[in-house]
Amino acid sequence: MTTPPETSFEVSDLNVYYGHVHVLQDVSFRMGTEPLGMVGRNGMGKSTLVKAIAGFIPVRSGSISFEGRDLANKQPYQITRAGIAHVPQGRRIFPSLTVHEHLTMVGARKSDRWTVPAIYDLFPRLAERKRNGGAELSGGEQQMLAIGRALLSNPRLLVMDEPSEGLAPAVVDHLAEVLRGVVSEGQAVLLIEQNLRFATELCDRILVMVNGRIAADLPASEIAGDAEVQNKYLGVV
Amino acid sequence: MDQFLLIALNGLTLAGVYFLVASGLTLIFGLMRVITMAHGTSYLLGGYLGYVIARETGNWFLGAIGGAILVGLLGLLIHQVLIRRFQDDDMRVALITLGVSLIGTDLMLAVFGGTATQVPVPGDVQVASVSIPFIGPYPLLRLLVLLIAVVVGVALTLFITRTRFGSVVRAGVDDSQMTAATGVNVRVVFAIIFVLGSALAGLAGVVGGTLFPLLPGQDGVYLLYSLVVVIVGGMGSITGAAIGAVLVGLVSQFSLVYAPTYSLVLTFALMVVVLAVRPQGIMGRAV
User: Fold this and answer.
1) Which of A51, B18, B228, B256 is the most exposed place for a label (fewest CB within 10 A)?
2) B211 CB neighbour count, 10 Å cutoff
3) Distance of residue A106 Cα from the nearest chain B Cα, in angstroms
């Protein structure tokens, strides 16, 4: 395992259960400010990991620590306030709120890097849809909004769960381009993806999850060009 | 024709009281996904407190404000002591609040007795009437109740749709977990809404107790009607509560005149029809 230069986020020996099902088994990894991707087939426990990090589901044992604080089993709002923001699978936009209300409810300060106008600069499409309700947005617009909403808490780690899911290839390319810009500013990102190309475009280091364990920790270049590795971990068996 | 309009106006003023009770319940129900069975008790207690304050001070408005504030404070106590730790267990919250309502009902019977009382208003307001075209003289008091309901409804709507806290409340009704993930301490929001909902029930008790007698048993009646209003209108929606209250008020008044035997049945028939056609309620969102 390569040791990142600056370790700020560390998951160690994490065990999570759904009822009696042992979904995450002794998951451990560390990351610093470099973007980290995690890929794996459906049902391998990737989303469970994200939910455990976000505080949506309880952790049986192990720790999730960020900047030296243990965040396992903390309330979701405490985790967000500790500096970890969450772009959930399925986007989970609020149907009753307009685009603008989604952004203003987070309450970013004027001195922050990410303010409501900064999000409109990042995603001009959202500015055009400002007064539209969350339920009226296309999938791509919803994803932009979910990312904007997460960025507005000005996180030091952005956790994204399948942001490319269900989006047209052109929209995915656009998102990748915007996110590359965000990452180049030094924004730490943990990206959970099924779309390997999207993950390798954004992250230099990729973890592979198989059956609730981290099965491999590889440079993106290695996994991107190796059909055998892809087939072993991601192919449909 | 005259009678038809008179009944309609009676239905609307009754709807004003139903709306005041149900607006608090719909916020609590929609946001916290728990049913507070003590909501009718808050109504009756608010009425009695308003009665005592208005009688002692001779000022109806002090009674209304006092009833709302005191019941709101009691709601805060109930939420913090009894509900907060069981928040995720809706059945337990329903049972706890049912217990609170049973105890509250008996305590009120002991303190205020079993005879009907009414919140006093100055004598000239009590008997004043306004002449309305096609209807003739109509009690001013009933129109004032309708006015209060409209003012409260508009204020609540502005609060929920125009403020940042209102955005948070609507987001919480949609998806409270995701709301928490944006950094909002949802439990604090729940507590504020529970207090606000209780205070609205208290205010409704004073307003309703001015038009209609305050009696043991009224708590159950208003809990039932406000539940019907919330189910018909859709939980979590102030507009839905207004529409539901108007429908329930009109149906109950018209059926009282034209089909008195079936009055209660028709009110529930309204609920059944709405549930059959639109299970989430008229303004509710499909879950």
Assistant:
1) B256
2) 18
3) 6
Q: Is B34 on the interface with A (CB under 8 A)?
A: no
| Domain-embedded: residue B283 | no
What pTM did the predictor assign? 0.89
CA distance A231 to A219: 16
* A10-56 tens-digit pLDDT: 999 999 999 899 999 999 999 998 899 999 988 889 999 999 999 99
Q: What is the pLDDT of residues A93-129, one digit of tens each?
A: 999 999 999 999 998 899 999 999 999 999 999 999 9
B188 close to A (CB below 8 A): no
Nearest chain B residue to A96, by CA: B170
Cβ-based neighbours of B66, under 8 Å, separated by 6 or more:
B49, B50, B53
Question: Cβ–Cβ of B168/A105 closer than 8 Å?
Answer: yes
Residue B285 lies in a domain: no
Asked whether residue B286 is domain-assigned, the answer is no
Best mutation target among A74, A96, A100 (most B Cβ atoms within 10 Å) is A96
CA dist A90 → A87, A189, A191, A236, B287 (Å): 9, 18, 14, 23, 15
Please give the ipTM for the structure prediction.
Answer: 0.91
Token look-up 């995603």 returns A123
Number of domains in chain A: 1
Provide the domain limits for residue B174: 2-277
Counted domains in chain B? 1
The reported pLDDT for the residue numbered A14 is 96
Look at residue A5 in the predicted model and tell me its pLDDT.
46
Task: Give the helix ranges, DSSP H, for B84-217.
Answer: 90-112, 123-127, 140-162, 164-174, 176-181, 186-211
Chain B partners of A77 at a C-beta cutoff of 8 Å?
Answer: 180-181, 183-186
The answer to whether the CB atoms of A88 and B181 lie below 8 A apart is yes
Residue A42 covered by a domain: yes
> Does residue A4 belong to any structural domain of this protein?
no
| Inter-chain residue contact B164 with A105, CB threshold 8 Å | yes
The parent domain of residue A126 ranges over 14-233
A5 assigned to some structural domain: no
Q: For residue A72, give the CATH number of its domain.
A: 3.40.50.300
CA distance B74 to B95: 18
Average pLDDT over residues B171-183: 94
- B171 vs A94, A107, A152: nearest CB: A94
Residue A6's pLDDT is 58
pLDDT in tens, B197-216: 999 999 999 999 999 999 99
